[in-house]
Each structure stands twice: as C-alpha cells, then as structure tokens.
C-alpha cells in the first residue's frame, strides 16, 4: 500500500513539474510576442477599454433587472447538514470493503447483519431522509423586473443549486399545507417564510393575496344547502 501511495505521489509531482514547464514556455512566448508587437499596444488598449466599458454597462443593466428579494435564514445550516451527510456517506461507502473484510474474520453472523443494517441506514437512508426535508427549503428568491418572473433556489441531493423560474400564475396554495410547504410551484412544494422578504408585497403577489377574494365556492355551498 505504501509503495502504491508513493508511486501516485511521484506521478502527481512529475505531472505538476511538466505542467509548470509548459506554463513557463507559454509565458515566455507571450512576452516575446508582446515585445515584437509593442507598436500595436495603443490601439489594443483602446479596444480593450471600449470592450470593458460595454461589458460593465451590460452587467450593470442585467443586475438592475434582477434583484434578490428573499434570503433564507437557515441556508448555511441546511448546506452544512447536507454536506456533512454526503461526506459521511462517501466515507462509509469507501470504508465498507475494509470493514466487511474485518467482520468476516470474526465470522459472527449477527454482528455482520447488525453492522450491515447500521451502515445501510447511515450511508444510504440518512442522506435521503434529510434531502426529503431540506429540498423544499428555499435559500433565496430573485425577481426579474423586465421579464416579470421569479426564480427560487433550492438544494439538490448532491448539494447543487436548483433554479425554479415561475410567475404568480404558476403558484398553487394548498388548502391544507403539508410539512414545510407554503406553496406549490410546478409540482415542487416549497417553503417560504414571509418575515424574510425584503418587500412583503412580493410575498402577497406570489401567494395571490393581492387578488380579490373568490366567494364562488361559498355561494355554491350555500345553494346546495338550500
């Protein structure tokens, strides 16, 4: 094992030295090319300045169109818990062959079964259970004023950000809210805390509270009773 590790380290060092040598050659070529084409620097600088100004104007325009209106207060905790479960699961999967080899040396069947059940729960079931709870938690919401749509961000099982673009027409408010469910957007149950909105009017608009109340169901129920 020590020999294999030393070979891997030696190979990595060799590849790193080769990459550094290539990088030095590239930098040398760049320096020589700049020295030979020094007379074109003024026009090049002017072109770069124009491109930089246009890119800055475009970025500022895009940022002004999109604004963050919601930030989840538990985003850091959710990310930390999911990261911890993923790391422990990966560590458990890697150490399983070594652990099972040691258990087989003991040769006790109840021990093998109990250890297998323990590892199966914490390696596979635990991350899935945590994801079922945290996948509904919205970390932040952005609003695009030009296109008039919202973008909600959540975390996937492997701790990647998931974007859900929607308009108020895509929102369904359940009559009986489930656990950690404030609204349903395109078949995605989401949880939002109204206290964390920078502008509460966005929350009212998303939930449909800015629309007039619909009394059609109440009138129909009264007619049926008569």
TrEMBL record:
Q: Which residues form the signal peptide?
A: none
For this protein, the record's InterPro entries field holds:
TMEM70, TMEM70/TMEM186/TMEM223
Which Pfam families does this chain map to? Answer: TMEM70
What name goes with this protein?
A: Transmembrane protein 70 homolog, mitochondrial
- Transmembrane ranges, per UniProt, are 83-101, 107-130
Q: Which UniProt keywords apply?
A: Membrane, Transmembrane, Transmembrane helix
The UniProt similarity line reads: Belongs to the TMEM70 family.
Q: One GO term of the cellular component aspect?
A: mitochondrial membrane
- Does the keyword Protein biosynthesis belong to this entry? no
Instruction: Output one GO BP term.
Output: mitochondrial proton-transporting ATP synthase complex assembly
């Amino acid at each position: 094992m020590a020999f294999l590790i030393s070979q891997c380290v030696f190979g990595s060092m060799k590849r790193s030295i080769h990459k550094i040598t290539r990088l030095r050659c590239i930098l040398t070529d760049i320096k020589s090319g700049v020295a030979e084409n020094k007379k074109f620097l003024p026009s090049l600088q002017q072109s770069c300045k124009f491109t930089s100004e246009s890119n800055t104007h475009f970025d500022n325009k895009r940022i002004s169109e999109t604004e963050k209106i919601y930030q989840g207060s538990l985003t850091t905790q959710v990310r930390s818990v999911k990261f911890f479960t993923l790391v422990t699961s990966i560590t458990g999967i890697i150490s399983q062959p070594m652990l099972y080899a040691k258990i087989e040396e003991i040769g006790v069947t109840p021990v093998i079964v109990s250890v297998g059940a323990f590892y199966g729960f914490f390696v596979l079931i635990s991350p899935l259970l945590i994801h079922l709870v945290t996948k509904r938690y919205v970390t932040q919401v952005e609003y695009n004023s030009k296109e008039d749509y919202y973008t909600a961000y959540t975390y996937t099982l492997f701790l990647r950000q998931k974007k859900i673009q929607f308009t108020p027409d895509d929102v369904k408010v359940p009559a009986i809210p489930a656990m950690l469910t404030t609204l349903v957007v395109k078949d995605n149950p989401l949880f939002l805390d109204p206290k964390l909105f920078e502008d509460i009017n966005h929350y009212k608009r998303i939930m449909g509270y800015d629309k007039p109340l619909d009394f059609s169901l109440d009138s129909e129920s009264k007619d049926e009773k008569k």
